[in-house]
Design a protein that fits this description.
130 residues; mainly alpha; 0% strand; extended
Length: 130
Amino acid sequence: MKLYRKTLRLIINSALKEGLKLFIIAICLVFIFNGLIWLVEYFNQGGLYNIIFGIFKIIIYFILPFYLFKYLISVFKRFGGGAMIVTFVIISLELILFFIIISLTTLIFVSWEELRNLFNEPINVIINLS
């Protein structure tokens, strides 16, 4: 029983560290690419905007999930399938919690009057299927 608890503690701690690492990487990428896009807009280089945004999408949508998948496979090889599922659930809940915290802290910096005006006025949504 002690070995089980020790292994479970090891799995949980490593999953929390890995989730924090993924979160920090994602936030740093957002800040870096947001700064690059601001620079491109400031110097009126429209062609670079699409390239930078494409690189950002590739990193966020392909490389970070691949990194998570690689980590889950290493957990599977070391501890088994149950540990991999526990790790995935812990990392998912941790990332959800971090992004909720960020959303709540951004509410501090947005004026409530702007939010009220946004929700009082009709929101027009245009869907272009072409």
